[in-house]
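Escalation from tier 1.

The customer reports that the assembly of four entities below gives different structure tokens on two consecutive runs. Tier 1 could not reproduce it. I'm attaching the input and our single run for tier 2 to review.
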Amino acid sequence: MTVSLNDIAERAGVSVKTVSGALHGGSARMSEQTRLRVKEIAEELGYVTNLAARSMRQGWMPLIGVVADELITSPFATEIIRGLDGAARASDMAVFAMTLNGSRDVGAVIEEVRRFRPRAIAYAAMYHKTVALPEAFVETVGVMINCREANNRVTSLVPDEFGAARDITSYLVEAGRKNIAFINLPGLLAGELREAGFRQAITEAGLDGAGTRVLPAVRRAIYSDRAHSLVLSHITELMSGPDRPDAILCGNDRVAMEAYAALRRVGAQIPDDVAVASFDNQVDIASRLDPPLTTMALPHRAMGRLAADILLGGDTTPGELHKLPFQLVERSSV
Amino acid sequence: MTVSLNDIAERAGVSVKTVSGALHGGSARMSEQTRLRVKEIAEELGYVTNLAARSMRQGWMPLIGVVADELITSPFATEIIRGLDGAARASDMAVFAMTLNGSRDVGAVIEEVRRFRPRAIAYAAMYHKTVALPEAFVETVGVMINCREANNRVTSLVPDEFGAARDITSYLVEAGRKNIAFINLPGLLAGELREAGFRQAITEAGLDGAGTRVLPAVRRAIYSDRAHSLVLSHITELMSGPDRPDAILCGNDRVAMEAYAALRRVGAQIPDDVAVASFDNQVDIASRLDPPLTTMALPHRAMGRLAADILLGGDTTPGELHKLPFQLVERSSV
DNA sequence: TAGACGTGGGTAATCGATAACCCTAGGTGA
DNA sequence: TCACCTAGGGTTATCGATTACCCACGTCTA
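Tier 1 run:
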């Protein structure tokens, strides 16, 4: 069987309380000699703390539970976990993620996580969206990551889509571009907010008349690998029309990848004829496109880190909405 | 505080044992009436099983621990978790992953996981490799995923690199290609095995003399985003040399992405002038390249699933090496 | 009609770590 | 010399779920 404090106590000829103090309680009163002997024996016997037992007294396990939309799939989403994990480790906590793959019953999954008695629970979404958490769980979930709770009852961390779109657009303008087309992701909250930021930057630059356009990237509402892409046809049309854009802002790096292919077909040079910029910074893709893609990096890691801080520090007023800034990654497509 | 069986028992006017039986023990002897009443009260009070408490008697938590090389980063690696998770859920188990991000001390991380008393532990690697597990842990780790234990003491699940390379090469040959260059990943076990498979297929096809070449994709041993790529220079050279290949097999989809860019620069058409194929099936990339990339899909999900089956079923002789087949995903680059 | 058996349910020990509380011996100040 | 302090450590209740064991009926069977 597994080694318990009792076994160590017996072997060392002291009581369990002494063993417990020697191994875990840093401040327990005892001679350095005893402490060392106990530690040695523990090592020798291969003792491993039983967190389940400890949690019985403590009331919770050293876990941060994460209920994920459908998380683990995307390369960025994993960044959220990394951010959480890093911050959690500093408090000797582990991150325990559970995905509701298709399961429509959020409550059931939250309960599944609660069975493990985590110290705190976060809800994380794959795409930036609004989530209507069932009433019974607004108390249970401490932080919403990459999504906001419908009624602003839960502290929420989201990317600053508006600001990012405004900034990248201004960046294009500063690079001398005057006719910018935005191939946006339709049907997504992120898309709506970005469109607003885009339009504001355009207005601020006094470029309203200059043929600015916002077009959808796909036909189906949610952007997925199976949605039929409109990128090729849009770009073909844009580039053969009377009002050719000199910059294309894409909804994400995958859309940009398709845009590159489309621009190549119509013989346009990047960035000489047309600058391309986008959102995400999916490094695999962005750094390997030719030319490498300038893109706004999503603050996933930062959201994860902040989430852990809030959950463990716990000194925020519930309901706050934190908008985290994107980061411009300049490559050579602008 | 949280609701316990005791609270329910009190409210229902029965003993804890009855409550326990009603909620969990399917076969416990008791009237259907009592069972229903107890369930109702449990629901009403919002009871959530305390797995830590249960685990004290059971001896383990319903968890499969996964110690990951540096896993969570890659899009395929997450497939391993998904495979594990799916199979684990069927047994009402959860997957608990812990990454050794840079921490060189595998043992320490394994112990961290052991503190949670998982039912079984798997070790998963990001790249197919050989791992020398410290002696003390060969008993602890039940399955190695995407890697093999150095001394064959632990059951290991790995992709059949040799077979995959042989098959995709034969596929190229069958498509009429006679002069195939392989831009391989240097310094990796997968690369070595694939090279052997590649050579065997070439020999079998009687194409030994035909200018077959194996070239490294990068200068540094381990392929990462910072390693300096040799793909462009290789392809430029190959295509301008006297013995132009009519097919290029790439080490992975990211290499293929660079190969596409390089071929474009030298004006070669895919697949008319040169066919391109690779390994991984990183859908994001493979399906969006122009033309879409034909590639051998890694069996990550299958490895995860099999791992869970082995860990929970437990009827394999330790030390077995399972080689799982890749799956050919035909698109239009060949 | 006594013993056997089945049904519905109670009692209490148990798992491992923790912590509130208690004990002892030696030392100290008044 | 005595009440008191302190270092060092022991005892035991506790957390919540499970389970071995026991009890009180009612029903059958020999």
